[in-house]
Design brief:
- By secondary structure, the protein is mainly β.
- The chain is 9% helix and 47% strand.
- The chain has 1 helix and 11 strands.
- The protein has a 7-stranded mixed beta barrel.
- The longest helix has 16 residues, at 3-18.
- The termini are far apart.
Length: 174
């Protein structure tokens, strides 16, 4: 192998190592990369569930998650939980959530999330639930929520976390 070939090979290898790859389960939509989409299992009769994920904006312009839809739910809304005078409160975000260029927004229990409302069936651990997210610029994007155990705090989290779980909306009626 010539010296030039070795240099080119090393350059290509270092580029691969320095560039964050898009994993197979990640969804790319324009400049957005959506990863770690998940939800929690719901008890029978529950009418709502929370959805969580990570959105990374690799572009130079902001985009905004403004809503969504799912066959399993009558309605999908973007929500936020936040402390207000020592009380955790949840509120819908009618204008959605902006993802600034070069930034990552994480939807997780106790913070940003989207609500699957008017559930038509319970979510069961191990299910994959298709959801369509709607962005101002990227448009409609299909993702699949990996349903974790009832007490999960993150994707792949064991159900033993149930004792430490944060507020869960899966049993609330809206």
């Amino acid at each position: 192998m010539s010296k030039l070939s070795r240099i080119l090979a090393l350059t290509a290898l270092s580029t691969c190592l320095l560039t964050a790859p898009v994993r197979a389960d990640d969804v790319k939509a324009g400049d957005l990369v959506i990863s770690q989409a998940w939800s929690r299992a719901t008890p029978g009769g529950a009418k709502v569930a929370g959805g969580y994920l990570t959105i990374e904006n690799k572009g130079t312009a902001a985009d905004r998650l403004i809503g969504g839809s799912a066959d399993i739910a009558g309605k999908v809304e973007i929500h936020e939980m936040a402390m207000d005078n020592g009380v955790m409160k949840m509120r819908p975000l009618d204008k959605g959530v902006t993802v600034e260029p070069g930034k990552t927004v994480t939807f997780a229990p106790g913070g940003y999330h989207f609500m699957l409302e008017q559930l038509k069936a319970p979510l069961r651990q191990g299910d994959k639930v298709p959801v369509i997210l709607e962005f101002e610029k990227a448009g409609k994007v299909a993702v699949s929520l990996d349903v974790q155990g009832v007490g999960a705090q993150a994707p792949g989290d064991a159900d033993h976390m149930q004792m430490k779980k944060m507020p869960d909306h899966s049993g609330m009626k809206m």
